[in-house]
């Protein structure tokens, strides 16, 4: 590996302090890590604008123009002190502004001289200005252009750009390259490269940082994406082979009494076609002899819970225990309540275990579980704990699995000597190819049909100024006997101010909706679990008309009489979260409404999200749009939602084509050489092992 495993601090321009920062901000420790920090975008520096052609509608985020200095000026005092350079090119003029390094900048500019100026345009009263642009003498810039027109823009955090500056980071990458260029060994056999039309690794890494042309950049991107997806597929496919050849799955060949009693006498509604199909798929899996590992996707309200219950009854009929794990206390309690009620008289023993279960009760439950006196246990991640032991666990359901890490799911497997069947359920639909990549070795089932009689939720977007109209509407709905949710965003970094918003909102609501006519409850993550439970119960039992909450209610809560979902600061939520929240209403027969409140100032992306919400109810369409809006650069954001792999360049949705080729390549490789032990394949283990890692969901994210 040569220097690739050396600390990044030895790269000229980095040093101890910046090395620490790189580790903290970007998880970069070694030179190799830094080498795999790719630009997320490239700008074409061959294009030179005329000032007159740059306006608010210019789509490029960065522009470059050539202009003469016409004047300079200092303004402001102390920390507000700034320095301006005025430039013009005959088609228009612009102001360049510096707040830092003023002295040095001042010396660099000669009035009357021409410079190449590059930066992010902004406009004040229609006048072009640029803060801290890059500036170069025209002659130099033109000489550099000869080499390459494309320049990478690196993903930077605020701290990193403070410490390096855009140019500084780029220079560091240049220094890095001269240190490591001879250490880059290609792990891919030449024959394989030829076959899939891939350039060498070193050629790819060079051009990803310093594109020699648009075409060579494309080849570099292709190769690096291919590697990532191949690395992941090598893992997924070998796990799959291991699972399907082990033939150690429990066999549920009896459809017994409990399933039958429930299905024939307790089920409060006929199953939809989609629900029936999924139950059948699970039946097939559980008689196959393989251990099932199935992802069930179904939009909010599509009725996944009853499918889970039926599957668990199947396990119980065959002499096994089953469990269902939910991401929040509220949701676990709710599942316990519905399932116990539905199973009355069926003869199954159901219990609940969560973080708030009292010590005495917990002891009893743990003992009963261990001796097989409980058939179905409903709980939170408390179920993962070591001390939770089963007599014979045969079936595990994980609800809203995007809230759990791969690691946590995997721990459930070890709860029995032979791994139980696993059903993971999600209402955050993921395009199939993405699911395949992110969640590994899973078969996918889809409930693509809502129970009959559902009416689509009417969604509108109001600016904050329309609050009176909103209140009027809420009063009308409450007068009809319906209930209203009001949800505030809770975003980790700014927790304090978020709670403040919620508190103020709550107080305002109480003023406008006073007792005794109106009853308002509140529910958020800072409350004691028992208090949370109580306010949810009040709302559920109709003792409160309005529930003011944070996104704790995002997952799974089921109150059919609630018909209005008001989302405050809706622009701060992601699309899938908005859709989840909307799914809390429209569960009864009444027309329901989702009202998105936002400030007047919206970014282009926020606007698109809110528009999309008003336009469609289809979770799959929204999920695809969400991915497209977030793009490859931000796909790591998905990590928090339990994504298994740290992708640096590939986007499984947009790069679906490459994904399929990589998948086929992985299958072929492993068919011939399952452990990659043949000499020409040995180096590919580097790639396989790089992507074998998992991530764990941080539970503090769950409010
Ligand atoms: P989700 O898929 O979001 O978890 P749930 O399982 O909570 O959805 O179901 C939403 C609501 O739809 C529940 O009140 C449930 O009782 C009801 N439901 C589920 N399946 C059907 C069906 N086939 N017909 C009518 N109502 C159904
Ligand atoms: Mg659910």
Strand and helix map with partners:
Layout: H1 15-26, H2 31-35, E1 41-44, E2 63-75, E3 82-88, E4 93-98, H3 102-108, E5 114-119, E6 121-124, E7 127-131, E8 134-137, H4 138-145, E9 150-153, H5 158-180, H6 190-196, H7 201-209, H8 214-246, H9 257-266, H10 273-287, E10 293-298, H11 304-317, E11 321-325, H12 329-342, E12 350-353, H13 359-371, E13 376-379, E14 393-398, H14 406-413, E15 421-426, H15 432-438, E16 443-447, E17 458-463, H16 467-479, E18 483-488, H17 495-512, E19 520-523, H18 529-540, E20 546-550, E21 562-567, H19 575-582, E22 593-598, H20 604-615, H21 619-630, H22 656-672, H23 684-690
Helix pairs in contact: 1-5, 7-8, 8-22, 8-23, 9-11, 10-11, 20-21
This protein binds adenosine-5'-diphosphate and magnesium ion (MG).
Describe the model.
- The protein is α/β, with parallel strands linked by helices and about 700 residues long.
- The chain has 5 domains: about 60 residues, 5' to 3' exonuclease, C-terminal subdomain (DNA polymerase, domain 1), CATH 1.10.150.20; about 100 residues, Nucleic acid-binding proteins (OB fold (Dihydrolipoamide Acetyltransferase, E2P), Beta Barrel); about 90 residues, no CATH class; about 190 residues, P-loop containing nucleotide triphosphate hydrolases (Rossmann fold); about 160 residues, Rossmann fold.
- A 7-stranded mixed sheet has the order 6-7-4-3-2-5-8.
- α8 crosses α23.
- The chain is globular, with a radius of gyration of 29 Å.
- The C terminus is likely disordered.
- The chain binds adenosine-5'-diphosphate and magnesium ion (MG).
- The site of adenosine-5'-diphosphate has 17 residues, from α11.
């Amino acid at each position: 590996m040569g220097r690739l495993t050396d600390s990044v601090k030895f790269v000229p321009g980095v040093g101890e302090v910046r090395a620490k920062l790189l580790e903290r901000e970007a998880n970069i420790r070694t030179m190799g890590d830094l080498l795999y920090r790719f630009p997320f975008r490239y700008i074409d520096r061959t294009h030179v604008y005329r000032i007159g052609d740059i306006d608010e509608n210019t789509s490029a985020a960065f522009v470059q123009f050539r202009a003469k200095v016409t004047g300079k000026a200092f303004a402001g005092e102390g920390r507000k002190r700034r320095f301006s350079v005025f430039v013009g090119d005959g088609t228009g003029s612009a102001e360049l502004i510096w707040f830092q390094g003023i002295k040095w900048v001042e010396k660099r500019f000669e009035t009357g001289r021409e410079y190449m100026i590059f930066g992010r345009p902004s406009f004040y009263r229609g006048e072009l200005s640029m803060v801290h642009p890059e500036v170069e003498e025209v002659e130099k810039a033109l000489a550099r252009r000869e080499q390459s027109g494309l320049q990478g823009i690196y993903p930077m955090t605020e701290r990193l750009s403070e410490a390096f500056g855009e140019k500084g980071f780029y220079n560091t990458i240049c220094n890095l390259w001269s240190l490591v260029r001879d250490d880059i060994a290609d792990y891919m056999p030449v024959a394989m490269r030829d076959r899939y039309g891939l350039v060498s690794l070193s050629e790819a890494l060079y051009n990803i940082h310093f594109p020699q042309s648009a075409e060579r950049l494309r080849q570099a991107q292709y190769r690096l994406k291919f590697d990532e997806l191949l690395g992941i597929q090598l893992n997924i496919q070998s796990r799959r082979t291991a699972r399907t050849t082990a033939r150690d799955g429990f066999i549920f060949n009896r459809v017994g009494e409990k399933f039958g009693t429930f299905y024939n006498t307790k089920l409060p509604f006929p199953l939809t076609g989609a629900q029936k199909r999924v139950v059948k798929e699970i039946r097939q899996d559980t008689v196959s002899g393989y251990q099932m590992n199935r992802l069930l996707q179904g939009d909010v309200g599509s009725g996944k819970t009853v499918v889970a219950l039926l599957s668990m009854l199947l396990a119980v009929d065959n002499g096994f225990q089953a469990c269902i794990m939910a991401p929040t206390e509220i949701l676990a309690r709710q599942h316990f309540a519905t399932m116990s009620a539905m199973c009355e008289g069926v003869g199954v023993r159901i219990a609940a275990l969560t973080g708030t279960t009292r010590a005495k009760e917990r002891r009893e439950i743990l003992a009963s579980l261990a001796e097989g006196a409980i058939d179905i246990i409903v709980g939170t991640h408390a179920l993962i704990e070591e001390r939770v032991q089963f007599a014979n666990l045969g079936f595990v359901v994980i609800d809203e699995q995007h809230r759990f890490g791969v690691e946590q799911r995997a721990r459930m497997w070890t709860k029995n000597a032979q791994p139980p069947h696993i059903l993971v359920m999600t209402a955050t639909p993921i395009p199939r190819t993405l699911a395949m990549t992110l969640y590994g070795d899973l078969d996918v089932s889809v409930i693509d049909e809502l129970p009959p009689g559902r009416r689509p939720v009417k969604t509108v977007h109001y600016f904050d100024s329309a609050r009176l109209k909103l209140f009027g509407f809420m009063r009308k709905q409450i007068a009809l006997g319906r209930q209203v949710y009001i949800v505030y965003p809770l975003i980790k970094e700014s927790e304090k101010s978020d709670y403040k918003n919620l508190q103020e909102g709550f107080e305002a609501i109480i003023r406008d909706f006073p007792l005794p006519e109106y009853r308002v409850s509140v529910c958020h993550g800072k409350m004691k679990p028992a208090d949370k439970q109580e306010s949810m119960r009040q709302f559920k039992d109709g003792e409160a008309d309005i529930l003011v909450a944070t996104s704790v209610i995002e997952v799974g809560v089921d109150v059919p009489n609630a018909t209005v979902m008001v989302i405050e600061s809706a622009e701060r939520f992601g699309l899938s979260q908005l859709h989840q929240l909307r799914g809390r209403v429209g569960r009864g027969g009444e027309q329901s409404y989702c009202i998105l409140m936002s400030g007047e100032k919206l970014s282009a992306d926020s606007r698109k999200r809110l528009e999309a919400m008003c336009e469609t109810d289809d979770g799959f369409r929204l999920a695809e749009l969400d991915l497209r809006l977030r793009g490859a650069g931000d796909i790591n954001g998905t990590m928090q939602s339990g994504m298994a792999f740290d992708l640096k360049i590939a986007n499984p949705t947009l790069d679906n084509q490459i994904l399929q080729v990589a998948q086929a390549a992985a299958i072929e490789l492993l068919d011939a050489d399952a452990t990659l032990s043949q000499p020409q394949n040995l180096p590919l283990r580097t790639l396989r092992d790089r992507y074998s890692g998992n991530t764990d969901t941080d539970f503090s994210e769950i409010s």
